[in-house]
Design goal:
184 residues, alpha+beta, globular
Amino acid sequence: MNEAVTPRFEVLRHEPIFKGHIFEVERRSVSLGSTQFDREIVHHPGAVAVVATTDEGKIVFIEQYRASVDRLLLEIPAGTKDQVGESLERTAERELLEETGYKASSFELLGEYLNSPGYSDQVTAVFWATGLALHERSPQGVEESVSTLKELSLTESLEAMRTGLLSDAMSCLAVLHLVRRHAL
């Protein structure tokens, strides 16, 4: 039986290109044997996504404007791990409350995923939040301040994915994580 040989990549150099409030960009020079190549890499501190379900089994979504695509998107609550030393679960609690006004009595980590490993090291942790109690929202930023909440059943969420109403990868993956969790 032939054993596959794992290619040996070597990082030769890191060249900072940009440092912003949330992320940094570097040019990374890499070699594979005698072949050298450069890649631009976005360094991101990580994020959380929260698929929160009400006692009636509805998933809580936010409809908000996204400038990158110049339209309203339906998304689950999520945010960047931008507070030094804050645990992933605490970030999930904070983002859920800020964006929706809900506090949850239980958080379960459903999984993690690489957002776009072709150019970024961002990892997003997906939590399932249950035992929701409504408190006061504290939206951050212009987009969140005019966002609206929508609640969809799991069946409606899957249909929204099929029709394109729910189209961002983070929300779609989170809903699929919930489907997988319910199937266990």
